[in-house]
Design a protein that fits this description.
Order of helices and strands: HHHHHH
CATH topology of the domain at 8-82: Helix Hairpins
Shape: globular
Structural class: mainly alpha
Largest sheet: none
Distance between the termini: 51 Å
Number of strands: 0
CATH class of the domain at 8-82: Mainly Alpha
Strand content: under 5%
Helix content: over 70%
Oligomer: single chain
Length: about 110
């Protein structure tokens, strides 16, 4: 049984980190990471484009599938860059309750 106290994305990030040391011949994740940062970044854009297409087409089922692919590839990009999901969650937590316009304005160099 899976520990439900850990979010699925955190668990997936742990699997990705573990697979980083696997053989690139047998692990797709290891293959992506072996060719980082370019290959994971390109795959992320490809999956984002596929999610965009499904969002515009209104195909919710396909959008859900492409969204899962997009999240996986985003986690691979984070792994390649040495970023943990916790870092991203903390940033999102800090932004919670802020207006999107106000938050964006606070990041613009003046």
């Amino acid at each position: 049984m899976t520990d439900n106290s850990t979010h699925i994305l955190d668990r997936l990030a742990e699997v990705i980190a573990q697979r980083a040391s696997d053989s690139a011949e047998t692990s797709y994740t290891a293959h992506l990471l072996e060719n980082a940062p370019e290959m994971p970044a390109r795959k992320l854009v490809e999956e984002a484009t596929e999610a965009l297409i499904e969002a515009i087409s209104g195909n919710g089922e396909k959008l859900a599938e492409e969204s899962a692919d997009l999240l996986y590839h985003l986690l691979v990009v984070w792994q390649a860059a040495g970023i943990t999901p916790r870092q991203v969650w903390d940033i999102l937590q800090a932004r919670q309750g802020l207006s999107g316009h106000a938050e964006k304005a606070s990041r613009i160099d003046t």
